[in-house]
Amino acid sequence: MTQSRDDFEARLRQIGAERYHDKHPFHHLLHGGGCTPDQVRAWVINRYYYQHSIPMKDAAFMSRVEDPKLRRIWRSRIEDHDGTDANEGGLQRWLRLADAVGLDRDYVASARGVLPATRFAVDAYVRFVRDKSLLEAVAASLTELFAPKIHQDRIAGLLKNYAFADESSLSYFQNRLKEAPKDVAFGLSWVLDHADTQEKQDAAARALEFKTDVLWSQLDALYSAYVAPARIPPGGWQPHEGLVAESRRVKAS
After folding, report:
1. pLDDT of amino acid 247
2. The domain spanning residue 193 has which CATH number?
3. Backbone angles phi, psi at 103, to 5 degrees
4. Which of 15, 23, 200, 252 is deepest in the core (most CB within 10 A)?
5. Total domains, the chain
6. Contact 108, 101 (CB under 8 A)
């Protein structure tokens, strides 16, 4: 039976209440000040791979959209991450965070050291948006419904607990608090408008669940590699790699 608009929105929000990655132990550790410098660096490196893939995901989505109005609206998501003449962009702001924690930004941007599970999950998300229906692709983006709280908690927790945290290094999260609301308002309205049968509502809900799995699995990989049992898989970042001092020494030799 097709749910009413209000009931279906409540269903989507309940998915976030139960499955969003703000509940993951790694985030509790990070926001509470319990991470070592290397654990923070590992998070920065792996999360960058997700950040840098978002514009590619959005470009793949737009390549299938025939409606010029939808393309115009969606285009701002790419600009928010890649930047414009007037906007530094989220990727550059994330690399400022990398600078702040002592990582060489060229190393981070190269995606060397990204955990295999992180790469697998993020690449799966890009493929999902490229291959699934437009409704499922937009629904998967609705994890942004739940992002403001995690950004607020992260800003407060990092500022309280880590010396590297300041207005510059945390500018990515500050800007997402301003940028994300317009995206999620449009995306939610679009999904509610287009999920007009039970089959479509079920598909949209499964897409949102899939996206929460993508986010959760990245943190599972981080926790396993760098917290417990602290078993770094082949190809994963080793704590001596990609540090600013080391990268400068290598370039000079």
Report:
1. 44
2. 1.20.910.10
3. -95, 145
4. 15
5. 1
6. no
Question: Is there a domain that residue 253 lies in?
Answer: no
- As beta bridge partners, residue 103 has 243
174-202: pLDDT as tens digits:
999 988 888 999 999 999 999 999 999 99
Tell me the two tokens of residue 64. Answer: 């299938």
Q: In this structure, is residue 71 part of a structural domain? A: yes
Tokens representing residue 130 in the block: 């490229």
Please give the single-letter amino acid code of residue 230: A
Residue from 210, 202, 212, 184 nearest 19 by CA: 212
Residue 50's nearest CA partner among 234, 177, 221, 185 is 221
Give the integer Cα–Cα distance in Å for 58 and 224: 30
**pLDDT tens readout for residues 163-180:** 999 999 999 999 999 888
Cα angle 78-112-155, degrees, rounded to a multiple of 5: 55
Please name the residue that has the structure tokens 């400068």: 248
pLDDT, tens digit (0-9, with 9 covering 90-100), for 86-100 = 889 999 999 999 999
Tokens of 246: 């080391």
The residue segments making up the domain with residue 58 are 5-246
